[in-house]
Task: structure prediction
Amino acid sequence: MAESFKKKYKLQGLVTSVILMWLDFIVIYLGLINGNSALMAGGMAVMLGATAIAYYFG
Result:
């Protein structure tokens, strides 16, 4: 019987989510330091996507 997509790629999905979150902290930090609200909003959108990935595979 074939494994489901979630079970087959659970580790890869969670690792991808963690990598996205760590890289995204840099974007949010740069947005805070430079006072660039668009950069911060983009960083928060990426963080939301990484959270959705973690939730899906978790």
